[in-house]
Amino acid sequence: MEHRPVTEIGVSAFVAAICAVFFVQASRLPPGSFEPLGSGPVPKWTAAIVILCCIAVMARGILRLRAAGGLAASAREEFTGGRPGGAVLMLAGSVLYVALLHFKVASFGIVTFVFLTLLIWALEGLRPAVLLPALVTAAVAAFGAEYLFTNVFTVDLPE
């Protein structure tokens, strides 16, 4: 697997910033009826866990930058000759995913299943051999998350 420390640090910082906003907003939610689980604590602690993971990825990226000769050398190596098509496609797919959830085109589980299947398959180069594992992984993640959030944590998800 190819490591890109500058990209890892940048993406992790961006995700951590978004999660910090979620953490602050979730702190303002009223307590749920199933405390300590519920509509406030679940997104709050999920955001906190993601922020901690981002900090770990950023620390690893900084160590790799130091080992690779610094920021300038790593940035030059990472961003020379690359095409942004994959990143643009992932961004467009993410925007479409959020829009489908917002406009309630289908349930959270179905939209997430389709999104994850396409994302996993695309990240693996659309190889036919990867489609079945992508379907299984997406089904477990999407429908498992839907069950967990709706039945265990009692969090309202888009329908």
From TrEMBL:
Task: Write out the transmembrane intervals.
Answer: 7-25, 45-63, 84-100, 106-123, 130-149
In terms of Pfam families, this protein maps to: TctB
Where is each DUF1468 domain found? 11-158
Q: Kindly give the InterPro entries that the UniProt entry links to this protein.
A: DUF1468
Presence of keyword Transmembrane helix: yes
Instruction: Tell me which domain of life the UniProt entry assigns to the organism this sequence originates from.
Output: Bacteria
* Keyword entries, A-Z: Membrane, Transmembrane, Transmembrane helix
This chain belongs to the protein called DUF1468 domain-containing protein
Q: Which organism is it from?
A: Halovulum marinum
